[in-house]
Amino acid sequence: MQFARDGDWERYDRTRSGALAGGAADAARGFPSTADHWLWAWIAKVLEFDPMPHWQRMSLPVFFAYGETDEEDNVPVGASVSRIRAELAPERDVTVQVYPGSGHALYDPVLAEEGEGVIRDDFADDLAAWIESRVSSTSVGK
Fold it and tell me: Is pLDDT above 80 for 119?
């Protein structure tokens, strides 16, 4: 992703080559091997995308779930949570939950260490409780 920001192909290529030669080879093979690959244009657009105007137009309740360690990989978790709380939460039904030890996929950190990609139970429980608390029992099944 840094290449999409700074255009330093040599640094990106060195990093990717190192990953290909090491334990991250499977993941590294999924990243572009040329500077003109179409994916870079898409990544550049994603990096510049600001979802806040879209969220501000919505009036429905929102549940935001973040994995704490995603901050290290690809999402500015702290800044995102602060911005949501400052710009959305004061006026809307907004819930923000950050799950410690999990990344973008919200895998259970203990099971992830064992090589299993299983969504953490507390996220599933929190989301189910959040939905249940906002759905009227009289509107279900109609």
Answer: yes
Q: In this structure, are residues 35 and 76 in contact, taking their beta carbons and an 8 Å threshold?
A: no
Looking up tokens 């602060």, which residue turns up? 82
Residue 91 has, within 13 A of its CA and on its CB side, a CA count of 9
Q: Is 99 helix (H, G, I), strand (E, B) or coil?
A: strand
Rounded alpha-carbon distances, angstroms, from residue 136 to 31, 83, 117, 132: 46, 30, 33, 8
- For 62, 81, 106, the CA distances from 68, given in Å and listed in that order, are 19, 11, 9
Q: Report d(CA 121, CA 102) in Å as an integer.
A: 12
pLDDT number for residue 91: 83
C-alpha 62, offset from chain centre: 16
Instruction: Report the chain's mean pLDDT, rounded to a whole number.
Output: 88
37-61 pLDDT per residue, tens: 998 888 888 888 899 999 999 999 9
Contact 67, 104 (CB under 8 A): yes
